[in-house]
Amino acid sequence: MHSDRILILDDEPLTGQTIRSIAEFAGMQARHTTDPDEFFQLVQEWRPGHIALDLIMPDMDGVQVMIRLAELNCRARIIITSGVGTRVLDAAARSAAEHGLRIAGVLAKPFSPPRLRELLFASDTDAEYNSEQKLEQPATRKTQEDMPPPAADTQFSHQDLVRALDNDELFVVYQPKLHCRTGILTGFEALVRWQHPARGVVTPDSFIPLAEQSELIDQLTLRVLEKSLSWLHQLPRSVAESSGDPYLSWRMESVTLSLNISAASLNNLTLFDQLDECCQAWGIRRDRLILELTETSAMEDPIASLDMLTRVRMRGYHLSIDDFGTGYSSMLQLARLPFSEIKVDKSFVMTAEESEESRTVIRSIIELGHGLGLQATAEGIETEETLAYLTSVGCDLAQGYHIARPMTEQQTLEWLIERSHNNEESRLSVLHAMNLLDTPEEERYDRITRLACRLFGVQTTLLSLVDTDRQWFKSVQGLRIRETHRDASFCSHAIDQTGTMIVNDASQDPRFAGNPLVTGFPHIRFYAGAPIHASNGSKLGTLCLIDPEPGVLSDSETRLLEKLAGLLEAELDDEPGKITDRLTGLMNRKGFEKRAGQLLELCNHFGLSADLLFLDIDHFKKHNSVHGPQSGDRFLDSFSRLFRDAFSEADLISRFGSDEFVVLLVGQPPEAIKDMLNTLRRHFNASQTDSRIGLDFSTGHSTLDSETHDDLQQLLARADRDMYAARAAAGDDE
Ligand code: C2E
Ligand code: CA
Ligand code: CA
Asked: With 50 as the cut, is the pLDDT of residue 140 above it?
C-alpha cells in the first residue's frame, strides 16, 4: 500500500479533477476514474493508501462498493464524498466502519479544499504513526503490505482452524484502556490474532464467526485466556526487567484485563471453571478480569443471560457490555443485568467529530450507563479531539488507535516504557505553566496542611510539588526547609503510582532504607502521600504526612487524606482574587461558604468535630454614621489583624459581612477554642485602651451535631441564637 497515492471514484469529472489537483499539489500521486470495475482493479494493483469515494453514482450501489472493499481487505484511508445530506453520509461512514474499513472522514459536496487537505493530512500522519499491520507483525515476518492482497473469497475451513489451534498459531495482542480525565492506565483488552502460515496475520472478524459455528470457540477462548493471563502474571516482572522502574512495575500488578466472550460460550460453565483455575494458577484476582459480552449476545435470551451473568459476577469477575448501541436493548433489560461497564460502540465514537447524531447517541449511552451505576468506556478513539469530547461528556475510560493500537507483548512493553518518559515531560510543562513554584506561602493552602497535621497527629505535613530535579514545598508544617533534592524525594515515587503511597517504616523498606532523609534529618520513618492533580489530570505532587515514628494508615484515614488532597486541588483551581475581601485581606463570604461546605461535609463523613464562631461588631452602623465610614474602616482593619492573629490555628476565618466575622474549627478541643477567643478578647481590650474608639464585639458559638449532620446554614443559625442569648443576658438590645 502506498500512502502517497490517492484513488478517486467519482462520476463528476470536475469534482474528480479538483480532488486530484489538490492532492497532487500536496505532493501525492492521484488517479481518477468514473468506472467501478476499473476502480477495483486499481485498488488491487496500484494499491493506493487513500481513496476518495463518491457513494452516490448512477448504476452503482455505494454500500456494495464498501462491502467489496471490505472483502478485498482494503486498508486504505477512505474519504467518503457525496452531494447528499450529511446524515446519510454519516450513516454510510458508520456502516463502512462496521465493515472494518478505515474511514478518514466525510466530505460533503460542495467541499472546501482545506477540509480535504485536513483529511488527507490526518490520514497521512496516522499512517506514519504506526500502521496496525506494522505493529502487530513480528519483525522477522513480512508485513502485510508486502504480501499480495488476500483473495476476496478468503474463507477458512473448520480444518484450518483445528490446525491453527493444534499448531499454536493464535496469539494475543493487547490494547490499553486509559482513564479519560487523568490519562492513567487502567487495563488492557486482549484481542486474538491468527498468525496464518500463508496469509500472515489474520484479524478475528475473519475467523471468530467460524469458530462459533464449528464449536471451536470455547477452545479458542480458553487458549486466549491461558495466554493472556500468563502474560498478565508476568507483566510486572517484564516491566521491571526492561525498564528498571519498580513503580511502573508495581502498577502493573493492579491493571485490569478485558476478555471477549462469545455468546456461544455463555452457557458453558466449564469455561468459567477453567477461568477460575487459570486465575488461581497465575495468582490473579478475579476482579481484575472484565468479561466483555456484545450487546446482542447478552440480550439474546435476557432471562437465561441474567442467570448466567449473575453467577459469573458472583464469582468476582466484572462484566462489560460491548458494542453498546448496535443492538436493541431497552434500559429495563440492561438495568436487570449485572454489568459493571458499558462500552460505547466504536461506530459512534469514530464519527463523533462529524456527526451530531453520533454525539447524541454517545451522550445518551454515557448517561444511561452512569444512571445505572456502570462505568462508561469509549472504544475507537482515533483523535485527540474525540478524546477531548468524550472527556467533556463524562466518559470514564478511553480506548482506541489515538492511545495505542492493539500491540504484541513486546510492543506493549515498549509502549509502557516510552509513555512513562513522555508523561513526565508533559507533567512538568503543566507544573511550570501554573506558576506555583517559588511563590510565597498562602493561607488557603496552609490551612489544609495544618488541618492534616492536627487530624493525623504527625510531625510534618507538606504540599510538595515535584519539579525537574527537586521537590518544592508550597506549604510546610513542622519543617523549616522549602525543598529537597528529587533523588531523595519520597513524593516523586508517590506520583509514579496509582493512589496513595504509604510507607509504614521507611527504614525497613528496601526502596527507602538508604535515603538520606531516612538515615539523617528529618529521620523519616512513616510516610503517606496522596497525589495532587492539575485539572488536566497531571500529577503535580502530593499532600504528604511524615513522621519520625513508624505508623499505619487505615483505609478510612487514607480516604480522609485523599479528601484533603482534593481540597488542595480545588484551591489550585480557584482564583484567589475572587475570594479575598479588599479592605481586610481576609477571605470573603463567598470563599468561606464554599470551603466551609467542603469541610463540614468532610466532618460529617469522617465523624470529626467542628465548631463555628460568629463575631459581630456591636453598634457598628451607628458608629459609622456618627464618626464617618473612614473611622469604621480603620477600626475594621485593626480588628481584622487581631482576629487573624488570634485565630491563626483555625481552619477557616472570614470577613462574613460588613461587620461580621466567622471562624470554622475542625477537630479542635473546646479549651483550645476558648483560648483563641480569650486571646482575641485580651488583645482587643488592650488595643481599645489606646484608641478609645468605643466599639466592642459579641460572639456566638455552635458545635456540629454528629447526629443531625448539620450544614453551614444550621451552624450559623445556632451561633446567631447563641450570640443573641448572650447579648440579652448582658442587657444589650442590638
Ligand atoms: P471488539 O471487542 O469490539 O474489539 C475492538 C475492536 O476495535 C478491535 O478489533 C480493535 O482492534 C478495534 N479498534 C480499537 N480501537 C480502534 C480504533 O481507534 N479504530 C478502529 N477502527 N478500530 C479500533 P479486532 O481486534 O479486529 O477485533 C474484532 C472483534 O473480534 C472484537 O471486537 C471482538 O468482538 C472479536 N474478538 C477479538 N478477540 C476475541 C477473542 O479472544 N474472543 C472472542 N470471542 N472474540 C474476539
Ligand atoms: Ca471487546
Ligand atoms: Ca467493541
From this structure: no
